[in-house]
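Lab meeting, item 3. Inverse folding demo.
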């Protein structure tokens, strides 16, 4: 009998306190309401690229039925990339081979699990040379993921990489870099651009690299 009275008392207390809960919640919500905060800003450097440099891609990248990742010149400079491996570190879905299959040297990109070393292009032209590619003369890197035989012809199912070399600009500038390090590491680059007239310009890129 005492347990039944205890349950009845608890039910009465719950019934009396329940109507007050929404009011307390509403009052608390009103007290903690904050004014909206609007944050605006603008980046000094734009990383967005709407089109591919390859003439094979005639539509904007947004309308291209492929996953295309562009590494622009600004990213290459800010990450201080000197090799293709350095430039591709910011691209997801790609790894670099480390000597598997008896290939201890040269660039061996693996896109989505497929060896794409034969799918490297320079300005849209296939470059199958076995080498470690430098970035001192590269303006941007375009990574196309997935089968792209429609645009690039034969190739693996992983995708392809297109390297775009630097071209003359409509402004005069001179840039350079100098690096020294352990193991007698020495490196110097020069990037010189000169405008000849309204329709012509000349650009020179040179590099010296040496190490043990």
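The presenter then showed the designed sequence:
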């Amino acid at each position: 009998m005492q347990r039944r009275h205890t349950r009845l008392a608890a039910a009465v207390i719950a019934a009396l306190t329940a109507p007050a809960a929404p009011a307390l919640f509403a009052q608390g919500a009103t007290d903690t309401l904050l004014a909206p905060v609007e944050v605006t800003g603008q980046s000094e450097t734009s990383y967005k690229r709407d089109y591919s440099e390859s003439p094979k891609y005639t539509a904007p990248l947004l309308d291209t039925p492929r996953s295309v990742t562009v590494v622009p010149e600004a990213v290459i400079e800010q990450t201080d990339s000197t090799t293709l491996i350095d430039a591709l570190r910011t691209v997801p879905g790609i790894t670099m081979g480390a000597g598997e299959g008896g290939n201890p040297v040269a660039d061996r990109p693996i896109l989505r699990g497929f060896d794409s070393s034969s799918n490297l292009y320079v300005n849209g032209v296939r470059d199958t040379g076995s080498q470690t590619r430098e970035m001192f003369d590269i303006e941007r890197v375009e990574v196309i993921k997935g089968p792209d035989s429609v645009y690039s012809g034969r190739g693996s199912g992983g995708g392809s990489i297109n390297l775009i070399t630097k071209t003359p600009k409509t402004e005069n500038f001179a840039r350079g870099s100098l690096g020294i390090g352990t193991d007698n590491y020495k490196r110097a680059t020069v990037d010189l651009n000169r405008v000849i007239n309204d329709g012509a310009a000349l650009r020179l890129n040179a590099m010296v690299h040496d190490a043990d």
